[in-house]
Amino acid sequence: MNRIAEILLDWYAREGRDLPWRRTRDPYRIWLSEVILQQTRVAQGMEYYLRFTERFPDVASLAAAPEDEVLKLWQGLGYYMMIYLSALQHFPEELIEASVLDGASGWQTFWKVRIPLLQPQIWFCSMVSTIAALGIFDVVFTITNGTGGPDKSTYVINFYSYFQAFNKFDFGYSAAIGIVLALITLVFNLALNVYQKKGGDVYD
User: Fold this and answer.
1) What is the Cα 60 distance to its own chain's centre?
2) How many other C-beta atoms lie within 10 A of the C-beta of residue 74?
3) C-beta of residue 184 within 8 angstroms of C-beta of residue 133
4) N or C terminus of the chain: which is more exposed, having fewer CB within 10 Å?
5) Predicted confidence (pLDDT) per residue in 104-116, tens digit
6) pTM listed for this prediction
């Protein structure tokens, strides 16, 4: 295991890209990069990240920003950030102030107060993105011209089911994969619905 870790670290030292969110330990900026990269490529996301962090350098400035200004800067990236923003702007300020009065650092406030308050939004976005990921097919089919290459490295479950049916003509196996995928997706959807019925409203 140590040998594998050494190989990976050596590869990263040689091949790792110099990205701004890798040069910081600020949890806000790291979190922001994660949200952006869930929705777009690094090349496109870099411009959004730099522009966004220049205008909103910390959580407090983002939470206090007018919604239309945030929407304008975020336009074109997706709606997950809007869910997070809605939560940030409705945090109970007394909790934040109490943590500061108790001597909590910015890092501690972020992890011990803000992240727990964001739990419904994080859970919702994770469930929705997982359900969307389970349905991926067209992108893989288009960019690989229906081959799933190189060397099957882009075989997602939907494409694998398609390959079994229309390349190997094993329609029974393909149908079984489809049923299992449908059941997994159903479980995620039911979990999301149960959570929301129990009061997990991500828009409040």
Assistant:
1) 21
2) 20
3) no
4) N
5) 888 888 888 888 8
6) 0.54
